[in-house]
Specification:
This protein has 146 residues and is an all-alpha fold. 67% of the residues lie in helices and 3% in strands.
């Protein structure tokens, strides 16, 4: 009789433990699914960040680094392509500024010699000699706590 009770008690304990493992398994399964969803959201955000910020920067950087080796028209076309591909990007604004800079200095490029800044024209309105006092003057900020 005691043996039957022990067997029944042991059987009940195994059933209870088995049910607890199922609950743990379901909780673990739910956690894994949550992590998978979170991971896919993070991957989508990372891809969007790459496309919106990193890729335009890399293109802009490549254009800037090769600016000296290219003709002004080629460089301007590259910047315009960047502006068309990424119209809402920060680099769109920077490309506009670079195009203006190239247009101002177009006269220093020739097909035979490429860019030549050694022959800067003294009468050029875009180039002015800095005033020595402007260069040397420092602006100091006094802090009452220092």
């Amino acid at each position: 009789m005691i043996m039957n009770r022990c067997q029944i008690l042991l059987l009940l304990m195994l059933i209870c433990l088995g049910c607890q493992n199922d609950e743990k398994y379901e909780a673990l399964k739910k956690d894994i699914l949550t992590l998978k969803e979170s991971n896919s959201k993070l991957e989508k955000k990372l891809e969007a960040t790459q496309m919106e910020y990193v890729l335009p920067f890399k293109i802009f950087e490549e254009i800037v680094m090769n600016e000296f080796a290219r003709s002004p028209d080629s460089t301007i076309n590259a910047y315009k392509d960047l502006m068309v591909r990424y119209p809402k990007s920060y680099w769109n604004h920077e490309a506009k500024a670079r195009i203006e800079n190239i247009e101002k200095r177009r006269e220093y490029w020739t097909k035979e010699k490429g860019w030549n800044f050694n022959t800067l024209k003294k009468t050029s309105p875009t180039i002015k000699k800095p005033n020595l006092k402007e260069v040397i003057m420092e602006r100091t900020i006094s802090c009452p706590g220092c």
